[in-house]
Amino acid sequence: MFQPDPRLFDAAGCALDLAPCALDPALRVETEDGWRPLGALRPGERLHTVDGGLAPLLDLRAIPGPQDAIRVPAGVLGADAETLLSPGQAVLVGTGAAMEWLNVPVALARAEHLVGHRGIALRRARTTALVRPVFAEEECLWAAGGLRLYAPGRATLLGPDFYPLLDRAEVADILG
């Protein structure tokens, strides 16, 4: 029988729920007009993406978030200020020496898997009213001055198409 890639399915065999990929509305993202809070944006505005292009925002959906957040300190993973992320938010990280076995220079890691590395820790969330930016295709956005955050596309069903999604052990190998 076909065995699905475990990085795309949870233990119950259901498709990976991308709903946790949601952000604090106060998080600054890079738009074509400069750095602005995500919650202040409107559909049609264009945001800078990691691949160097501008992508129009299709929608900004309100998502109830968890009580806990993942604190990324200033200076870590490119963030220029302390940043709080939802535990399920995917972050683009450099693979460094692991590139030999991953065969990619960057990969995605869930924020919750970053805890314990480089001062990243679990904290109480400032707000549980989060937003999810929606684009036509999956994108990685510039946020908090240099943090690279994944935003699912309108048609993303199972998980990221263009970046591998690391598990907790792979994150420990890369960031450890």
TrEMBL record:
<dbReference type="InterPro" id="IPR028992">
    <property type="entry name" value="Hedgehog/Intein_dom"/>
</dbReference>
<dbReference type="Pfam" id="PF13403">
    <property type="entry name" value="Hint_2"/>
</dbReference>
<protein>
    <submittedName>
        <fullName>Hint domain-containing protein</fullName>
    </submittedName>
</protein>
<feature type="domain" description="Hedgehog/Intein (Hint)">
    <location>
        <begin position="28"/>
        <end position="145"/>
    </location>
</feature>
